[in-house]
Q: What sequence folds into this?
């Protein structure tokens, strides 16, 4: 497809030149392929794939992307006050050194294999499969709705994230999160070196099969959360609505404020809470003496070997 630029643009808009493009509607495949040293202001990229592929040193402000693959293989990109429409999917892949601020990103599958990115004050209402395999990222005041957010993300600092969608942060590594709200089932599976501070987490089966998970000043609401972890630290946390916790979890250092509904077969470490409602310790599966469990109210329930939820009920 041949590219076109409306309204008789001058030579400053030719790919490879320097200058400013403003108040234009651009269409066609690779409309500004390999653009260099450009300011693009108040423009619309209509139908046509890969409009800015292999761009370098671009500043985009109040730009609308309405078709696929707008920023692939780019370097040193700044995007502000712009919109990525639903068909602008798979929008930012294989791109390094990008800053995005004050944008609406409606398309799914945004941000793949991006390195050194900063995202601030951005909304992702359709964030399915977004932020995959990215490295060295900073997120601030981001809202996202969609499953499989941030799969295999590594080396990221995140603050003020509101996430709604299951399977978030699967396989993530070296992540710091603060002041966030995460409503996500099966989150942080297969992850490593995760620190979360002053945040709310709700969703079943939180952080299974992971290593070195640290939570401080957090509230966790998770059925069978915090299981199969090697290296779990909880500081001043509340496990509100969390039951059957710590199954086959080892190297635990947990300081819980409030109670724990049920502790289920932890392998080793220390757990302290105000009270424990149910204690399930099966000597056939774990060594009960390897985990020191303390209730600040001075009373622990008599251990059972099978959780109450698993016990067969008499027929009515």
A:
């Amino acid at each position: 497809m041949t590219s076109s630029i409306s309204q008789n643009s001058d030579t400053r808009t030719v790919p490879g030149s320097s200058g400013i493009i403003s108040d234009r509607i651009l269409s066609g495949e690779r409309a500004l392929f390999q653009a260099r040293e450009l300011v693009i202001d108040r423009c619309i990229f209509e139908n046509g794939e890969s409009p800015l592929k292999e761009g370098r040193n671009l500043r985009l402000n109040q730009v609308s992307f309405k078709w696929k693959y707008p920023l692939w293989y780019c370097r040193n990109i700044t995007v502000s006050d712009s919109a990525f429409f639903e068909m602008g999917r798979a929008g930012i892949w294989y791109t390094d050194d990008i800053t995005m601020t004050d944008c609406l990103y409606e398309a799914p599958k945004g941000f793949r294999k991006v390195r050194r990115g900063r995202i601030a004050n951005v909304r992702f209402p359709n964030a399915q499969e977004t932020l995959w395999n990215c490295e060295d990222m900073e997120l601030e005041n981001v809202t996202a709705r969609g499953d499989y957010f941030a799969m295999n993300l590594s080396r990221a600092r995140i603050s003020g994230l509101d996430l709604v969608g299951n399977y978030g942060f699967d396989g993530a590594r070296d992540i710091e999160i603060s002041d966030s709200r995460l409503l996500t089932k099966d989150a942080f599976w297969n992850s490593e070196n995760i620190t979360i501070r002053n945040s709310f987490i709700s969703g079943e089966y939180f952080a299974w099969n992971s290593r070195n998970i640290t939570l401080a000043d957090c509230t966790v609401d998770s059925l069978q959360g915090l299981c199969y972890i090697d290296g779990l630290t909880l500081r001043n946390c509340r496990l509100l609505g969390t039951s059957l916790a710590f199954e086959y979890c080892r190297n635990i250092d947990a300081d819980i404020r409030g109670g724990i509904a049920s502790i289920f077969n932890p392998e080793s470490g220390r757990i302290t809470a105000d009270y424990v409602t149910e204690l399930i310790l099966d000597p056939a599966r774990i060594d009960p003496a390897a985990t020191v469990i303390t209730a600040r109210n001075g009373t622990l329930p008599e251990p059972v070997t099978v959780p109450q939820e698993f016990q067969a009920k008499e027929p009515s």
Notes: The chain has no helices and 27 strands. Confidence is low (pLDDT under 50) at residues 1-17. The longest strand covers residues 135-145. Residues 147-310 form one domain.
